[in-house]
Structures are given as C-alpha cells and as structure tokens.
Specification:
The chain is an alpha/beta fold. It has helices at 47-55, 77-82, 100-108, 123-135, 151-164, 181-192, 207-213, 231-236, 238-245; strands at 7-18, 21-32, 36-40, 62-67, 70-71, 85-87, 169-173, 199-203, 216-221, 224-229. Helix 3 runs parallel beside helix 5, helix 4 packs across helix 5 (151-164) and helix 5 packs parallel to helix 6 (181-192). It is globular and about 50 Å long. The relative contact order is 0.17.
C-alpha cells in the first residue's frame, strides 16, 4: 500500500446521483504522486462523472476529494486548477480563433493577472507556452489558428495547455478519442514522455494504450470499483474479463 504522504489525489467514498441514476456508489481511488492511474469501464459505468466530480464540475452527494492531503471538495474547478489539479476534456476544449501559442500562453499566465494583459504580449507566458508547444510537437504550428489544426494536433494542443498550468495532478478524459492510427501513435509518444512529471488520471477506452501507460488500473462497473491493481492483475482478473475486457484481452 502506498503511504498517505505519497498520495497526490484521493477520492474517498464518492457518491453522486444524476437525476434518477446513482452514477457513483461509494468510489474510492487513490492516485500516487508521479504515477499513472487509469479509470476504465463500459459506457455508463460512471467514468466521466468521476472526472467531473474530481475536477470540480459537479459536487458529490457524499464523500471527499483530497489533493495532497488537503480537502478540496468544496472548491470550484478554477480554485482546484490554481492548486494544481488540471484536466483535459473528452471533447477538445480550445479557443479556435486564437493561435496555438495564444491558447497555451493564456494557460501559462499567473491566475492573479486574469485577462488584463494579453497573453500574446507577455514574454514570460510566451516562453512557457513555446516550451510546452515544443514538448508536445507543435512548435511549428505556434502561429496557426487553433481551429485550423488537425484533430490530433488539437489533442496535442489541449495537453500543452494543461501542462502550461503546471499541474500536480492531471486528469485526461479520453485523450485518444477520435484519433486515427498515426495520430494515436504520436499522442502515445507524447503521453509516455509525461511520466514522472505529475500524477496522471487517465480515462480511456483504448485498452492497448491503457495497458501500455498505466501503473494502476481501476475498473468501474455500474458506479462501483470492481477491481484495482497493476495492469497484469487486471488483465487476469476473471470478474473484470466477464464485466468488461472479454476473452480477447
């Protein structure tokens, strides 16, 4: 068991009801610092509800979210981001009329500045933004409007934007969704390069990518965690195979 002092993010006993549906039923997931934790499960299992709750988009009916031991359950998404909990979205969230550089530079600005100064004019923001664009393979596209980028490049840009916020915990909600084979290979190379930078929670349907990236996998079915452990243990778990992976895992 990982010592409490080494847990970057802890979801404790999270419950939430969305209308008539109890989407999460006492979820408990611990994310070690600097490690990858994947959340997988069939459609409707509660994966996106969990990410929305942890990131602050929705509030739990019961339970708590701890960031490095501090209870952040009552904080907004923006307040959590300022403390180092950042996320990407299942549907790419960028400012299409802004350049790639401007998108990342806005994220790199100190929260205290707000939008008073244009990010494109701030040397410090641009320096951080260019470094993250380079890291994510988009330096050559820095001056292109974000809306003109390919689907895979938009995914890369969203990751660069999140990294510019200096995350301590990064939530990635289906970063490979909609990507073709070449885009997927490029994104996987990018994701592998993030190992050790921060704790990462990955929600992803591409199980080959999950098994390649994750240190720990938690399997959700009907709003409950039915198994949690290293990839090989999850691959061999009979209950997981019956509920989700199938016999081709």
């Amino acid at each position: 068991m990982t010592p409490a002092s080494e847990i970057a993010l802890h979801a404790e006993g999270l419950r939430v009801r969305l209308g008539a549906i109890e989407a999460l039923r006492g979820i408990d997931v611990a994310v070690p610092a600097g490690r990858w934790t994947a959340i997988v499960g069939p459609n409707g299992a509660g994966k996106t509800s969990l990410i929305n709750l942890v990131s602050g988009l929705i509030r739990p009916d019961a339970g708590a979210v701890l960031l490095e031991g501090h209870d952040i359950t009552g904080l907004s998404l923006r307040q959590r981001a300022r403390r180092g909990l950042l996320r990407s979205f299942q549907i790419t969230a960028i400012l299409p009329e802004f350049t790639a550089l401007e998108n990342v530079a806005l994220a790199a600005q100190s929260p205290a500045w707000g939008f008073v100064r244009a990010a494109a004019r701030d040397a410090a923001s641009n320096h951080v933004a260019m470094a993250e664009l380079e890291r994510c393979g988009l330096a050559a596209r820095a001056d292109h409007p974000a809306g003109a980028l390919s689907h895979g490049e938009k995914r890369q840009l969203e990751i660069a934007t999140a990294l510019a916020g200096r995350p301590r915990v990064l939530l990635l909600d289906e970063p490979l969704a909609g990507a073709g084979p070449e885009e997927t290979a490029r994104l996987l190379d990018l994701l592998r390069g993030l190992r050790g930078d921060c704790a990462i929670v990955l929600v992803e349907h591409d199980m080959a990518a999950v098994f390649a990236l994750a240190d720990t996998i938690s399997v959700l079915v009907y709003g409950r965690v039915i198994a949690s452990g290293p990839p090989e243990a999850i691959r061999a778990d009979a209950a997981v195979r019956a509920a989700y992976l199938g016999e081709d895992a």
